[in-house]
Amino acid sequence: MLRGIWQLRAGKLSVLFLSVIILLAIFGPALAPYDPLVGTDHVLADPSAQHWLGTDYLGRDVLSRILAGSTISVLGSVQVAVIALFVGAIPGILSVYLGRTFEWLTLRLVDTLIALPFLVFAVAVTALLGNGIPQAMLVVGVMVSPAFYRVARAAALTISRSQYVEAAILSGASIGWIVRKHVWAKILPAIAITLANTMGTGFVVVSSLTFLGIGVQPPAPTWGGVLASDLGYLNFRPYAPLFTTVLIVLTVLAFNLLADVIRDVSGESGRALLIRREKKRGRTARQTSATIPPTPHGDPQ
Amino acid sequence: MTAEIIDRLQITAAIEREGEPVLRLDGVNIRNQITGKDVVRGISFTLKKGKVVGIVGESGSGKTLTCRAVLGILPELFSVSGGTIDLLGHDVLSLEPKQWTQLRGTSITAVFQDPGSYLNPSMKVGAQIAEVIRTKRGVTRQEAKQRTLELLADVRLRDPELVYGQYPFELSGGMLQRVLIAAAISLDPKILIADEVTTALDVTVQAEVLDLLADLKERHGLSLIVVSHDLAVVAQICDEVLVLRDGEVVERGATAEVLRRPKHGYTRLLIGEHHLYGLERFLDAKPTTPKPRLVDSRPILIRAEGVCVSYDSSTSRRQALKDATFVLRQGESIGVIGETGSGKSTLARALIGLVTPSAGQISIAGEDITGFSAARWRDFRKRGIIQYVFQDPLRSLDPEVTIADTLAEPLLLQGMLSKSEIRDRIYFRLDQVRLQRNLLNRFPGELSGGQRQRIAVARALVTEPKVLILDEPVSALDSANRVQILEILNSLRANGTSLMFISHDLGSVAGVTERVMVLYRGSIVETAATDDVVNRPGHLYTRLLVGSAPTVTSIGSIDRRSRQALREQLEAAS
Known about the structure:
The structure holds 2 protein chains of 2 kinds.
Chain A: H1 2-7, H2 9-31, H3 62-97, H4 100-115, H5 118-129, H6 133-160, H7 163-170, H8 175-212, H9 223-231, H10 241-265, H11 267-280
Chain B: H1 2-18, E1 21-32, E2 37-48, E3 52-56, H2 63-71, E4 78-87, E5 90-91, H3 97-103, E6 108-111, H4 125-137, H5 141-154, H6 160-164, H7 173-184, E7 191-195, H8 203-220, E8 223-228, H9 231-237, E9 240-245, E10 248-254, H10 255-260, H11 265-277, H12 280-284, E11 300-312, E12 317-329, E13 333-337, H13 344-351, E14 359-364, E15 367-368, H14 374-382, E16 386-389, H15 393-396, H16 403-414, H17 419-432, H18 449-461, E17 467-471, H19 479-494, E18 498-503, H20 506-510, E19 515-520, E20 523-529, H21 530-535, H22 540-548, H23 560-573
Parallel strand pairs in B: 3-8, 3-9, 6-7, 7-8, 13-18, 13-19, 16-17, 17-18
Antiparallel strand pairs in B: 1-2, 1-4, 4-5, 9-10, 11-12, 11-14, 14-15, 19-20
C-alpha cells in the first residue's frame, strides 16, 4: 500500500507536504527567530525583513508564534486521531464477534455520541476536567470515534459473512485467528482513510478550540490562537489571518488527499490500478491468469 | 389444372414466407478498442422466421457480445469492426439512436440471465410491463393492464391477477424469468434473444422455461436466438446450432447433425462430457436387472437419525429439513439432489455444524456432534475429518491471501506439522488436483474459475479428510472445467475418500456417485442406487427431475405434455 501511495502524484504531494508539517511540529519551536511569548514595541507591524509575517497586537513575531505553535496543533490532531482509533475501531470490530449484548450496547452508545453537539460538549467537559490540551483532545477523540466505529464495524460485518471466513471456521479457526488472518488486512485501508480524514478534522477542531480559548491558556502559541488574535485587528492588518488560514487549510487538504489516495490504491481495484500503471511504464507486470490457457485433460470420447 | 398450379404457388409462397430471413449476420467482427484485438471474428448466420438458432460456447467465447451487437447495445469499449448485420431489412450498424428506440422491443428484444436485476425492486411487476406497453403503444392504463394480464397468462403464470400486484422479491427465479419473457414479448417482437435464460435455474424450472420458449415460438411465430454454455439446453429447442470458441465459429449445422456427428474436437469434448459424466452414461446403457443387494460391510462414517432443522423468524417458523435419516459409509459416494430450497444445503450445513438441528442426532466417525460446544467444534474441525467445498470458489477463497497461505491454513491451525511437512503436503495435493506449483504465489483473482475450484478442493484435502462434502461444486463452471473437477472427484473415490455431492443437476451427480438421495421440500423422498434413480425413478418429483434433465442424445427423455402432467400431479400431491 505504501509503495502504491508513493506512485501516485497526489500521494507523493500529500506525503511530502505532511512531512514538512511534521518537521515543523518537531523543530518549529527551535527554529523560531524570536521568543514567541515576549512582546516588543513594534505593535501590529507589517511584514518586513525583520519580521517576515509582521507582529501581533503585543508586538510578538507572528512567524515565531506560528512555528512555536505547530507542536501543540499537530500533536493535538494526532492525539485526537489515535484516541478515536482506539475508542472507535476496536469496539467496532469486536461488535461483530462478541455477541448481541455487546453489539447493542456499543451501538446505542455510538448513537448517543453522534447526537451530542460537538463544541458544546467539549466546552462542558473541559470545564469539568480542567482546561488542558490532553483533556480537550480526549473529548474530541471520543466525539469523533463513532466514525471509526461505523467504518470498522461495516467492514468487519461484510467480511464476517463471507464464505472464506466460513471456510476458516470449518478448519477450526478461532475468532482471534479470523480477525488476524482474514479481517484485519481488509479493514486496514478503510481505517487508514478514516484516520487521515480524522487528522484533518482534528486539526480544524484543535484550531477552533484554541481559537475559542479551550484547551490552551492564552499566552501559549497555537495556530488557532494566532488566527484569533489576528482576526481582532483586521483594521490594521487585513491580510494577517491568511497566513494561518492557508496553513490550516493546506494541512487539512493534505490529509484528505492522502485519505483519497489510500482509498484509490487499496483493495482489488487498487491493485489493478497499480498493475496498469506499471504496464504503462513498460515494466513487466506480474503474469495474470488470462494469459494461461486452461489445459483440458485428454479428449473424452 | 390452373387451379392446381395456383394452389401450388400459394403453398410455395407460404413456405417461403415461413423461411424468410429476419436477421442476417455476415462476417461480423467485434473489436476491443483498448487492446485493438478482435474478440469476435467472422460470425455469419441467418435466422429465419419461426426458427431457432442456438449459440453455444464457454464464458468469454463472444456469444453475449454477438447478441449485444445485434441489439446495438455493445459495451462502451467494444465496437463492430467489420461485416454487416441485417435486421428485417435495416442495416443495424448505420442506425441512429432514434431508429433503434423504435426497433427495440417491437422488432427485436432480449431476455438475460439473472432476471431479478432487470426489474425495479420497488415497483410491482405488472406495472412495469404495463408501463412499457403504455409508452410504446399509447394505450390507456386500463388497456395496458388488460394486455399485461393476457401476457402473464401467456407465459403460463398460474395466477396473473396475483402476480400483477406482486413485487419482484415475492417471485421465484423461474417466475421472474417468465415475467421478463412476458415483458419482452409485450410489443409483439419478431426476434427474441434468450441469453443464458435458464442458467441460474433448477433443472425442472429450466425445462419449464425452455418449454415455454418453444411454445411461444409456435404460437406467435417468434424467431429465437438461444445462447447457452450448455449444449444440452440448446439441443432441446434449436433447429440450428453454432459452436463458438474464442470468438470464432468452430462448428455449425442442424442441431441433430452436429450432435450426432460432431466434426470439431471442441464440440466432441462438449458432447463427450455428457456421455462420460452425464445421464447419457446411464440412459445409453441397457437397463440392468436390479442386482441383489450385498450387505454393505464398510464402516459407517456419518449416521444421521431424524435430523430436523428449522429457521425461526419473528413471524414464522420454517422447517427446512424434516426427519432426515441416512448413513454414509467409508469410501462411499452419495449424491444429494433437489431443487432450490429443498433443504439439501441445510442438510450439509447441519453435518458440519454451521446450522444446529432442532431435533435428531448426527454422529461423525463415532462422535456425536449434536451437542458440541463451540470449543469442542473447533477441536473437532481441526482434526479435519470432514471437509467442505463451496459452490463459488471466488467467494470461498480469501481474495487477499495467496494460494500457498490458503492451502496452508488448515494445517497451521492443526499446528502439528513442520514447515517442510506442510509444504510437501501442499505439493502433493496440488499435483492431485493437477495444478502447477507456480500458482502458489498468486492471489485467487489471478486464477481462472476452474483453477480456483481446484484450489478449493485442494484446501479441503490437505487435512486428509475421510469425508468431503461438496455443495454444487461444478454449477458455476463451464464444460471443460466441470469434466476436470469430476475426474478429480472420481480419482478421490478410488483412493477411498467418501464423497457427499450436492447438486440440483442429476447429470453431474450421476457421473461420480453410487447412490443418490433425493430431497423434496425438506424431506428425503427417495434413496437408491444412481442407476435405479435414473432408469426407474420412484417418487413423482424424481420422475419429473429425470424427465426434465436436458440430454444431448434424446431431446428431453419425456415430452412436454407428460412433464406438464407430472408437474400438476406433484402440485396436487403436496
